Amino acid sequence: MSADGRVWVGVSGTSAGTVPFRVDIPKAIVCHKSPGSPNAKAKNLDVSFPDGLADHLAHGDTIGLCQDGSN
Length: 71
Fold this sequence. Notes:
With about 70 residues, the chain is mainly β. It is about 10% helix and about 40% strand.
């Protein structure tokens, strides 16, 4: 994994032998709760990673999809 968490690399064993892989992670999904409107319905957002993720977590959003069926 790169120092900033945006690139993951590794190898996977397959029936054809060992295969290298690379995964680039430009976005993260958060369940967004509007900080100025506590009664507003939470919604799913994709945010830049890692900088945008840190900003959203700082004001109460959570990583992953909203669990109440919000979109």
